[in-house]
Structure formats: structure tokens, C-alpha cells
Design goal:
Layout lengths: L1 H7 L3 E4 L4 E4 L16 H6 L6 H5 L3 H9 L1 H14 L1 H4 L11 H12 L3 H8 L3 E4 L2 E5 L6 H12 L31 H22 L11 E10 L8 E4 L5 E6 L7 E2 L2 E4 L5 E4 L5 E6 L4 E3 L2 E3 L1 E10 L29 H4 L8 H4 L7
Antiparallel strand pairs: 1-2, 3-4, 4-11, 5-14, 6-12, 7-11, 7-14, 8-13, 9-10, 9-12
Helix pairs in contact: 7-8
């Protein structure tokens, strides 16, 4: 028996009163040993997060923390959704949260994917900079439901990994299951997946047919961000392009309480366009479009950012990386998707099959 226990290479806790031997899996590097009766939620809440300084310098300890606790955190989010009183009181996330005009137009195209219905849908959008489109996305009478989910998740006590691409955004979440430390509440994930499949992916294909074939947008990546005007807050992001085919950026605020924090799109030749955010609006553009967020001066601004991309990031810029593209970097008409091909949902697959787990950050 002793040899068998040693072979497991797991810590042994002996209870003197009963003389029984109990074997636990090794605790994560940053947590104390947990009692056998602790739920995954309790264990997750007892974890000690890596410090901001460790995350900023991308210390190896940070990666070990998220890798070691990945399954524990996913289980903790499931327990939180069914056991936590605040979580149980959360309203349902569904398509009724989408702005009624947009929702009706999208439903019409799904029911009958014709060029006429697609034109009616496109006419709802405003081109605010070349190749950049804006629309009221959330129903402003219901956007508080989305905010409630994010606010309650922030108060859940479960460690989540903040987005860290160009800069670290401390008030954000990783959203997509390809990222460790993501917001893994099952109902939220169901809503997020439907948001991508019903709206984000087909809308990208509709507006940028010259840049997208099915291999260019089969994968997804998402995160939330918050900019804060107060001293010490995360305020801006410098000029950059995204490692995505499509970037779909949705504001999550019920009202505009911030100043500053507009987007700038760089179109070349000195044509730089400022795009002011409106509460509940979405802005969509190709990932390769150079852009920046100017510093926020006061208040807060919160957004949900969704990317589509190819497997492993290899087709991150759509047609610009494809040998099928012409000299102008666009797919010829003969290769482009028809309306029927644009409005197709992917087959449902287990996460381990449909995710290649490559993550931009």
C-alpha cells in the first residue's frame, strides 16, 4: 500500500483521530491545501491571484497559475451559476437583448437569405470611417441585463484572467473558451456562442465578402475591457491592428458617463477619423484596420470585443494572407460566398474539437 501511494506522487494527509489516509490532488502553486469538503467554488475563491506586476512582466508563475487551475475554475463557474444566490437571480441572456430593428432584420435574412434582405440589413448601419460600420446593437431598455452579468461575475470571487494584449486591462475578462481564466459560466457561454454564430460571423461575411471565406473566420476570440478616468486607471491603447479577420466591438454602458475615449481609425494620407462611442452601439471593421483608443478623461467606458479568425491565427487577416487572393489582396468574385453560404451556422462540436486553443494573448 505504501508503494502504491508513493507512486501517485500526491500529497498525503493523515488524520490522527481516525488513522485513515486521504489522498488529495496537489494544490495549485498559489493556494493552501483545501479540505475534502470544499467545493470547487470555495477552492477557487481561496486562490491567490498573481500580482499585477507579475502579469505585467509576464512572469512564468502567471502561466503556471492559469494552467494548473484551468479545470478547477471551469467547475467553479458551473457551481456559481447553480448555487450562488446572486447568480440565480440574474435575468436570462437571449436574443431579446439585441436592438429590435437589428434583430428583426437579421432574423429576416436567416429565414430568407436573399440579396434584397441583406441590403435592407446593411442599410441599418452607418459607415463612420472607410470600412468601419456602426449600429445600435443592444436594446437600451435591456442592456442593464448584460451589465448585471458582468458585474456579478466580477463579484463572484472566482479568479479571471484580465486581457493582456498590447496593455493589461485590469477590469476586463477573457470570454472565449480558448483562453485560460475565461468567464466560464455555462449560460453566459451559450449566449456568447449564439451572439457569434447568429450575428458576428455572418455580418462580417456580409460587409467584407472580398476578405472572408469559411477558413478565415472559423475561430473566435473575445474579451471585455473597461477604461477608467480616475488616477491609476487603464485609460487608452496605442495605434495597432488586431490579429483578427473581423473585429466586432460592442459598448456595454447604459448611458454615456465618460469624456474622451473615442476611437481613431488611420486611413492613410493623413485621413484619421475620430469615432465617438454611443452607449450600446457596435463598431465593426477588418482586424487589419489600424486604430487606437484615445485616453479617457473622466468616467468609465466598458466594451465587449469579439474577433473572428482562422485556425491557429494563420489566416488572421483574411484574404490578405491567402494565395487565392488577387493582386489587390481581395478574393475574386468567383470565390466569394453567396448569401446562402454566408448565413450558415457551424455544426455544434465539443470545445476540445472545435477549438485549436491558439490564443492571440
Amino acid at each position: 500500500q505504501t508503494l502504491k501511494l508513493l507512486a501517485t506522487k500526491k500529497p498525503i494527509i493523515r488524520t490522527p483521530t481516525t488513522q485513515k489516509t486521504m489522498i488529495f490532488p496537489p494544490p495549485p502553486p498559489s493556494s493552501a491545501a483545501c479540505a475534502a469538503s470544499d467545493s470547487a467554488l470555495a477552492q477557487a475563491r481561496a486562490l491567490q491571484m498573481p500580482s499585477r506586476e507579475e502579469m505585467l512582466r509576464r512572469d512564468s508563475k502567471v502561466y503556471r497559475f492559469w494552467d494548473a487551475n484551468e479545470k478547477l475554475l471551469e467547475t467553479a463557474w458551473k457551481e456559481w451559476q447553480v448555487n450562488d444566490k446572486q447568480a440565480l437571480a440574474l435575468p436570462k441572456l437571449d436574443s431579446s437583448l439585441i436592438h429590435p430593428e437589428l434583430r428583426a432584420a437579421v432574423e429576416a435574412v436567416w429565414e430568407n437569405p436573399t440579396e434584397s434582405n441583406e441590403r435592407a440589413l446593411k442599410n441599418l448601419w452607418k459607415e463612420v470611417s472607410p470600412g468601419v460600420y456602426d449600429i445600435p446593437f443592444f436594446d437600451m431598455d435591456k442592456i442593464h441585463i448584460v451589465r448585471q452579468w458582468f458585474d456579478q461575475a466580477a463579484d463572484a470571487g472566482i479568479p479571471t484572467r484580465p486581457p493582456y494584449g498590447i496593455v493589461l486591462n485590469r477590469k476586463g475578462f477573457m470570454i472565449d473558451p480558448r483562453s485560460v481564466g475565461y468567464l466560464a459560466a455555462p449560460d453566459f457561454q451559450t449566449w456568447y456562442r449564439d451572439l457569434v454564430d447568429t450575428y458576428v460571423r455572418p455580418l462580417g461575411r456580409l460587409f467584407f465578402p472580398e476578405a472572408i471565406l469559411p477558413n478565415d473566420d472559423s475561430e473566435t476570440f473575445a474579451f471585455s475591457i473597461q477604461y477608467q478616468g480616475q488616477e491609476g486607471g487603464d485609460k487608452s491603447i496605442r495605434p495597432h491592428s488586431d490579429a483578427s479577420t473581423i473585429t466586432f466591438n460592442i459598448n456595454l454602458d447604459e448611458e454615456k458617463t465618460w469624456t474622451g475615449s473615442s476611437l481613431i481609425f488611420y486611413n492613410g494620407g493623413g485621413d484619421n477619423r475620430h469615432v465617438e462611442w454611443a452607449p450600446g452601439h457596435a463598431v465593426m471593421h477588418l482586424g487589419r484596420k489600424m486604430h487606437a483608443a484615445v485616453p479617457i478623461e473622466s468616467g468609465t467606458r466598458s466594451n465587449l470585443v469579439i474577433w473572428t479568425m482562422g485556425k491557429g491565427g494563420g489566416m488572421g487577416y483574411g484574404s490578405s494572407n491567402s494565395p487565392m487572393a488577387g493582386d489587390n489582396g481581395e478574393y475574386p468574385e468567383v470565390y466569394r460566398l453567396s448569401p446562402e453560404q454566408r448565413w450558415v451556422k457551424p455544426e455544434e462540436q465539443p470545445p476540445t474539437q472545435y477549438l485549436d486553443r491558439w490564443s492571440p494573448f
